[in-house]
Amino acid sequence: MKTILFDASLCNGCYGCQMACKDEHCGNDWSPIAAEQPLTGQFWCKVEQETRGKVPEVKVQYTPVMCGHCDNAACMAAATDGAVYRRDDGLIIIDPVKAKGQKAIVEACPAGAVYWNEALELPQKCTGCAHLLDDGWSVPRCVDVCATGALTYVDEADVPADAVPMPAVAENHPHVYYRNIPKRWVYGVLVDRGANEVIIGTKVSLVDAEGTTVAEVDTDEFGEFRFKELDENAYTVRAQVAGFEEVVLTADTSEGDVVLGDIFLKAVA
């Protein structure tokens, strides 16, 4: 069984996979595998963009979402008359004739990867470019056009141990995996308000709820510190600079990344 593997550390957000999917399926009827995809309203490969943090520390994360061709496919369970079937290579196909009128197939997908074609009264989704594979291609179009290698087409047995199933359908055992999705982070800048200067080379500690120091970094030449790859927990940021009161700030990553911004130190009276 083949699997699409997405490596977030290699993605530059070019949207090439999304555009290639539209190019392959819009204006082209690949029956009996798929009817023509409409120009608007459907993205069988959809690149989701998430803006994380806030000014002055903002990062953008890109993640492609597509059909997982799940082992426990909700779309198959919702279909009647064999309208959704699994090929011998594992790809799940919505029959464009038998599926007509079966909107329940759309509603069943927990990832929102199945779309409703109003004009054709037909549920539609990624086919894994089955028509191309049948024609001798070794990979789907989205993988073929990925310029950075962020998308690859690998055997299930070769999926790296640190990769995780596509989260939206993880319980359904999809054949799309993600790796190197950035975890939470905490950012701040230590500033001497009186001298109007940043504090360079000061150790900053990140402490968990049990009082254990989980990470330490030194402020850089801009007075900045960053803690990366954090779990979703409540933390405390602590720093001590001679002549100033100790910095003790809450940094709870449970709801998202934490940007503390400029932290003005208070001189000891």
From TrEMBL:
SUPFAM superfamilies: 4Fe-4S ferredoxins, Cna protein B-type domain. It holds the Pfam family CarboxypepD_reg. Gene3D superfamilies: 3.30.70.20, Immunoglobulins. Residues 58-155 form the 4Fe-4S ferredoxin-type domain. Keywords: 4Fe-4S, Iron, Iron-sulfur, Metal-binding. It comes from the Bacteria. This is Carboxypeptidase regulatory-like domain-containing protein. The lineage of its organism: Bacteria, Bacillati, Actinomycetota, Coriobacteriia, Eggerthellales.
